[in-house]
Amino acid sequence: MKNEDGTAWAAILLLVLMLLLPFLWILVGTTTEPYHVVSGDPLPEAVQAAGITVVSATDSTWPVAGAMGGKTYTLSDESGNLYTIRTQKFDSAESRDAAVIAYNAQSVGRGRTVGKLIVVGNYLVYVQPFTSAILKRIAPELQKLKAT
Amino acid sequence: MSDNATAPKKSGLTPPKVLGIFALAMINVAAVLSIRNFPSMAIYGWSCIGWYLIGTILFLIPLSLAGAELATMLKDKGGGVYAWCNEAFGTKGGFVAIFCEWSNNLVWFPTVLAFIASTLAYALSPALGSNSIYLFTVMMIAFWGTTAIAYFGEDVSAKFQNYGVILGSIIPSVLIIGLGIWWIASGAAIVLPPFSLGEIVPTIDLSTLPFFATIILLFAGMEMAGFHALETRNPESDFPKAMALSAVIIFFCTVFATLAIAFVIPADELNLAAGVMQAIEYFFTAMNIPQAIAPMAVLITIGGVVSLAAWLIGPAKGLGVVAEQGNLPPLFNRTNRYGSPVAVLLIQALIGSFISLLYVFLPSVNQAYWILSAMTVELLCIVYVLVFASLIKLRYSRPDAIRPFKIPGGTPGVWFIGGMGAFAVIFAFIVGLMPTGDFSSNEAVSYVAGVLLGTFLLAVPPLIFLKLKKPSWIETGTKEG
């Protein structure tokens, strides 16, 4: 009987470990986005480096706690396709991460959100939809800005 | 083998037959209908109709029909998808299906809990939304509160879901639709371009393929009523009607509420980064009833809790049946006097709480979110592939079984419906692995490997349990007095 109890407990322990392993690995192991103050809005620089034109930029402040303002950009690629991208500066790591958590909680059904947030220091850059072709072009440039 | 494996509860107590058509339908509506989908889909304008039709034709209708046939055929067997897949593929197939449905919840719980907390913050004080302590506290109250409701059995949780889904999902949807109609009737400008058939056709190309997985699983949860087969008064007649009723409610509320929002808010003004409530605020401000915004936030919060309850209770009941049949260690096989699988509920709550803790307090979980959400998609795809495969297989392995509801068209009909559903889900599984454009090449490889490995780890425990299984496990379950 004791042997069988041991097997049962081993099975339970195994289950808990197997269930938690992916979460620990993904949540702890994925790239962290340290909070640091970026000098100015990161998007214009990234867009310029990607060869995309800024058509217009208007000020906007997201109605979320800690948001300090940013811009809504209308961009145009070489073919004349227009894209809207939003940026927002945050006053702390906590408010920035809370905005990320709140946004990611708005998945469609059991899937994903329709847009994607990119974290650059104290800024969030929002691309909608996440399938937008512009994401592929500006993301590498934003990555470079993350490193600086 | 499978007959014994899915026999009614060995405790000898027959679960109370408390569920009728309406209650069953509301379980499905609670699991599927969500206000948070509407603003997100409204950005697609008229083409949201096309996206919804794709999800409806390829998934909602096939799953509803499959659920109706399997639930009525196996009406005496508890466990929902477990009973269905068990009947077709034996214990391994059934156990893997229910375990994937259960473990995908563990990935999804933190996001729906965060939605509940952040939406409620909008009604109380938006500043609370950036407070991690507030977020976690509300998440835990919602999670453990819903678990407590599940503890008190089918009667209590069914009532909670019936009232909750009406209050938190149907009333807000109908209100948004009504206001949209009023907007048109009052002669206000519709921000969408003039309607044409061409406008509803969505753009489908390589870049939009990852969104396809989202659309297919937009209506995931239609099988949820099947977990309550043993508590249903007249399963033969009630299941098909409940499936039809819930599918109609979900489809019409979803499509027309999304369009109502799309009529009023220009797509470039729909800043979803600021949250679903920003869209709701814009909508109600445009309607000149800003005082309705906070009550709407409360209602949407209730809708979130009800959705959580539907997903929390159903798969846990299924896993409880697995434990009753001795496929899990006896610790899991504890039911209380209300017939609730208390051990499974408790373990689920503990693991879910720990993951939520990590989710809220670890810094910058943005990229992690994408991997975890992809895992949710992949695990659900495994469940639905097995469900559609079971539908087809049982037509061959149990051709003479009484099917009070039968998908019309004979074998070709079932191949068409089951095949279409399975095709869509397999396709969703494949495109669900595609990373978004901001992943570098190296990150993309890690992403795909991470998603596959994570999915594997969350899907494989049933096979290990079956290897470790002891004959005594089936006899040592505990029923609380």
Estimate percent helicity of chain A: 40-55%
Q: How much helix, percentage-wise, in residues of chain B?
A: 55-70%
CATH class annotation of chain B:
Mainly Alpha
Structural class determined from secondary elements of chain A: alpha+beta
Mean pLDDT of chain A: 85
CATH architectural grouping of the largest domain in chain A: 2-Layer Sandwich
- Write down the domain tally of chain A: 2
| Annotated CATH architecture of chain B | Up-down Bundle
Q: How much strand content do the residues of chain B show?
A: under 5%
Could you describe the largest sheet of chain B, including whether it forms a barrel?
Answer: 2 strands, parallel
Profile the largest sheet of chain A: 5 strands, antiparallel
Low-confidence stretches of chain A: none
Structure write-up:
The complex is a heterodimer of chains A (148) and B (481). Chain A has 4 helices and 5 strands; from the N terminus they run ααβββαββα. By secondary structure, chain A is of the alpha+beta class. Chain A folds into 2 domains: 30 residues; 106 residues, 2-Layer Sandwich (Phosphorylase Kinase, domain 1), CATH 3.30.200. Chain A has a 5-stranded antiparallel sheet, sandwiched between helices. In chain A, helix 2 crosses helix 4. The longest helix of chain B has 44 residues. Chain B has 16 helices and 2 strands. Chain B has one domain: Amino acid/polyamine transporter I, CATH 1.20.1740.
Summed up, what is this model?
With 148 residues, chain A is α+β, with helices and mostly antiparallel strands. Chain A contains four helices and five strands; from the N terminus they run H-H-E-E-E-H-E-E-H. Helix content of chain A is 43%, strand content 22%.
